[in-house]
Amino acid sequence: QVHLMESGGGSVQAGWSLRLSCAASDSTVSIRCMAWFRQAPGKEREGVATIDGSGTRRFADSVKGRFTISKDIAKNTLYLQMDSLKPEDTSMYYCAASNTYYCSWGPASFIYWGQGTQVTVSS
């Protein structure tokens, strides 16, 4: 069982930045596909970014050029740097881990989830 715990959410104004962190209970970030998802009230959970075991990254079109996903293997931690935040980025953000080295897009392939951290962006 892998435990994931997110932190770093908050309330900011449009244009500001936040960095989310996801601490894993073991060395899972080095051997699994890791991802950030988000879900706003009344909407489906959507993929934001993924990073696989080799470090290859993928981003949703809505966040390309503004968000960066990274990982610190020594700290067993996943990050999401969010710049130029927009009100439409307001959502609960979740960290997730797959049981595979390479990534597939979409929540179905992820088996471990954190409890989420809220990001609110005001205009």
Structural description of this entry:
The chain has 123 residues and is mostly beta strands. It has one helix and eleven strands, in the order βββαββββββββ. The strands form two sheets. Strands 2, 4, 5, 6, 9, 10 and 11 form a seven-stranded mixed beta sheet that branches. A four-stranded antiparallel beta sheet has the order 1-3-8-7. It is globular. The model has no long low-confidence stretch (mean pLDDT 95).
Order of H and E elements: EEEHEEEEEEEE
The major sheet is characterized as: 7 strands, mixed
Shape type: globular
Mean pLDDT equals 95
Please tell me how large the radius of gyration is. 13 Å
- Note the gap between the termini: 40 Å
Which structural class do you get from the secondary structure elements?
Answer: mainly beta
Share of helical residues: under 10%
Q: Into which percentage range does the β-strand content fall?
A: over 45%
* Count, helices: 1
- Strand tally, please? 11
Summarize the model shown.
The chain has 123 residues and is mainly beta. It contains 1 helix and 11 strands.
Topology, please?
Elements: E1 4-7, E2 10-13, E3 18-24, H1 28-31, E4 34-39, E5 46-51, E6 57-59, E7 67-72, E8 77-82, E9 91-98, E10 110-113, E11 117-122
Parallel strand pairs: 2-11
Antiparallel strand pairs: 1-3, 3-8, 4-5, 4-9, 5-6, 7-8, 9-10, 9-11
Labels describing this entry:
123 residues, mainly beta, seven-stranded mixed sheet, four-stranded antiparallel sheet, 1 helix, 49% strand, globular
